[in-house]
Amino acid sequence: MKTFPKTTHQMADLLLDKLDFCKGWKKGRLLEWVQWFANNGRCYAVTSGGSLVGVTLVRLVDCEADCEEQYRDTNGPVCYVEAAVSRHPKALKSLFTMMLTNVGKNVKKMAWVRHKYDGRVTVVDIDRAKRRLMRN
């Protein structure tokens, strides 16, 4: 049986609590998924008062079609936000600020899945995404 760092467990617990698509996953699968992002430097986390309050997982891909392929990361020009969850009103802005500082200068577009729209992938220019994410 694999062991995972405490932080991986904390991120997995927050994702499980906030994301419906994770609810049917076995704990081991969820932990491996989160750890893949951590191992590849593609996760961002925010704490408040010593507790984890937000997590964002991203992959950098070449095109919209690559968003559909799990674990595909080509360091491409599209930042695909695989997951972004928060328990604190300011956590998402902090997460996206960290993410954009880290990868924003190298990407041209940002993409994410709109689960309420039948899983449709939305892709926008990075400048538009920055304006939307940083306006509050």
Structure in words:
Strand 4 and strand 5 form a beta hairpin. The protein has helices at about 5-20, 25-40, 90-105, 125-135, and strands spanning about 45-50, 50-60, 80-85, 110-115, 120-125. The protein contains 4 helices and 5 strands, in the order H-H-E-E-E-H-E-E-H. It is α+β, with helices and mostly antiparallel strands and about 140 residues long. A 5-stranded mixed β-sheet has the order 1-2-3-4-5, sandwiched between helices.
Largest sheet: 5 strands, mixed
Helical proportion, percent range? 25-40%
> How would you state the average pLDDT, rounded?
91
- Overall 3D shape: globular
Total number of helical segments?
4
The SSE string, one letter per element, is: HHEEEHEEH
How many strand elements? 5
Task: Give the topology.
Layout lengths: L5 H13 L8 H13 L3 E6 L2 E11 L16 E9 L4 H13 L5 E6 L5 E6 H9 L2
Parallel strand pairs: 3-4
Antiparallel strand pairs: 1-2, 2-3, 4-5
